[in-house]
Amino acid sequence: MHEVHSRRRCVAASVSLVVGAALLASGTARGIGIGQVDTFAINTAGWQEGVASPNPPTRVASGGPAGAGDAFLQNISSGGSGAGSKQIMFNQVQWTGNFTTAGVGAISLDAKDLGTTDSNIRLAFRSATSVIVTTESFAVPAGSAWMSHTFPLRESDLTVLTGSYADAMSGVTSMRILSNSIVDEDGESIAMTLGIDNVRALPEPITGFQFAIASMLVRRKRR
Predict the structure, then answer these.
(1) How many other CB atoms sit within 10 Å of the CB of residue 220?
(2) Which of 49, 76, 160, 201 could form a disulfide with 55 if both were Cys (CB 3.0 to 4.6 A apart)?
(3) pLDDT tens for residues 181-199?
(4) Given this model, what pLDDT does residue 30 score?
(5) Any idea what DSSP says for residue 166?
(6) What does R_g of the chain's alpha carbons equal in angstroms?
(7) Cα 214 to Cα 219: distance, rounded to the nearest angstrom
(8) Is 24's pLDDT higher than 60?
(9) SS3 of 35, please?
């Protein structure tokens, strides 16, 4: 009987993993978690602009970092004014919730500037009462190859625009990917085409000192 229950638990766990992976791929899973990744293999994974935008994010079936057959997300901004003029997109599905208790300390992604204007990629996070944005941007030159970057999410790495860091990270209602040369939650009005892939939730990156301590402990254990 014990073996039967154990097998049932294993089957249930396997089903949960498969369903969870499918939900993440389709962009219908809710709530942040370590290891979560948007590869855009199926669709846009919930990334969008305002409903009035004439050029919302679209899935491109091939040409991502892995080459032929690797899908990615493309976002076009027209420049000027009005809907679709700014380089910005947001997600209110799986990239929400309590980043603090989930242990998410960094977001990595791959980016490619498919246009003729340089990009300055930032992340912004909104809660009900707070807005924070990454202080340092990720520079992606026009016409670049795919480039990888990790945004650490420590308090020292983000600028508070409204409310507080703690409030924003404990109740994210929207995560934004944008291009702006200044520290702002809004994308700049710019004519450009941006490719994004492999948006991934990671634990906080360890420092050189932490790595050295961990290595020392491993060596001691081996001895």
Answers:
(1) 8
(2) 76
(3) 999 999 999 999 999 999 9
(4) 59
(5) H
(6) 19
(7) 9
(8) no
(9) coil
- Asked whether residue 215 carries a pLDDT value surpassing 70, the answer given is no
Query: What DSSP state is assigned to residue 82?
Result: S
Residue 138 · residue 151 · CB < 8 Å: yes
Q: What is the token pair recorded at 46?
A: 């919930």
Distance CA 155, CA 188 (A): 24
Beta bridge partners of residue 142, listed in sequence order? 113
- Counted residue by residue, the chain has a size of 223
Reference 48, options 4, 89, 100, 97; nearest CA is: 89
Hunting for tokens 């634990």 — which residue is that?
Answer: 203
Q: Write down the pLDDT at residue 31.
A: 81
Q: What is the pLDDT of residues 1-16, one digit of tens each?
A: 444 334 433 333 333 3
Q: How far, in Å, CA of 124 to CA of 180, rounded?
A: 11
Q: Which residues of 54-89 are buried (b: 16+ CB within 10 A; e: fewer)?
A: eebbeeeeebbbeeeebbbbbbbbbeeeeebbbbbb
- The H-or-E segment that residue 107 falls in is strand 106-113
With contact defined as beta carbons under 8 Å apart, do 38 and 177 qualify? Answer: no
